[in-house]
């Protein structure tokens, strides 16, 4: 028995928690697209001792405790010790949101293994305890609203997305720690809450009206403002590397040349590029030539 969940990339970003009820209530709504390529596969077996393997490597005490703290929040009065085997088909913690697929795959697998009888809505809430973005990993397009509820959205837009890998190493500061710093210190927090709530409303309409350009414009606005919030925190949080800026400039230049593409970035230096399926061959060719060996298909 094993469970699979795909990672998601936000087109309206989530950054900062309000509280746990015990489920996560975010400060802002967010909207995501589910990857069709990058996933986590998780398998649980009964074991003499609680163990956690990631890509066949036994994890240290810190990582193991983190995962089992989550397990014990989901499964109360657990009567079995378990071994968790997790595989990611993507670089872990590279700003490619492996936590989103990771906590969703684990939630689905726990649900099966311990017969928890959780329905989809509850699975999303459970996953949000591990990672806010994980709550969005059940649906192709998901809205995680300010009440901590997940809504499935629809659109006829045929999305395609690649990631340009700038840095595949573990990130310097976890998103959890960084969000707390932003919440405690960023002067832009009120602007963030107000504007991103507005972006979510516009994005919902743009998806419904199949307006790809509006989706792209709002995605960039939400990304830019989120990174302003990070940078305006004390200490300043900056996930960009020189190559991240270069790729963004390249996206903007292509757009001026009439190619319909938009960028987004998460808590890492990698840049994701969004376009429509109909332009996929042309755009992938351009990026594979310019950033050879650094391109990963996301959608
Ligand atoms: O799910 P977390 O706690 O790792 O937060 C990730 C937040 C961003 O990836 C930066 C944005 C988002 O909405 O996915």
From TrEMBL:
GO terms for cellular component: cytosol. InterPro entries: GHMP_kinase_C_sf (IPR036554), Mev_decarb (IPR005935), Mev_diP_decarb (IPR029765), MVD-like_N (IPR053859), Mvd1_C (IPR041431), Ribosomal_Su5_D2-typ_SF (IPR020568), Ribsml_uS5_D2-typ_fold_subgr (IPR014721). Transmembrane segments: none annotated. It is an enzyme of class 4 (lyase). Residues 162-292 form the Mvd1 C-terminal domain. GO terms for molecular function: ATP binding; diphosphomevalonate decarboxylase activity. Pfam families: MDD_C (PF18376), MVD-like_N (PF22700). Its EC number is 4.1.1.33. GO terms for biological process: isopentenyl diphosphate biosynthetic process, mevalonate pathway. Residues 5-139 form the Diphosphomevalonate decarboxylase-like N-terminal domain. Belongs to the diphosphomevalonate decarboxylase family. NCBIfam families: mevDPdecarb. This is diphosphomevalonate decarboxylase. It comes from Oceanivirga miroungae.
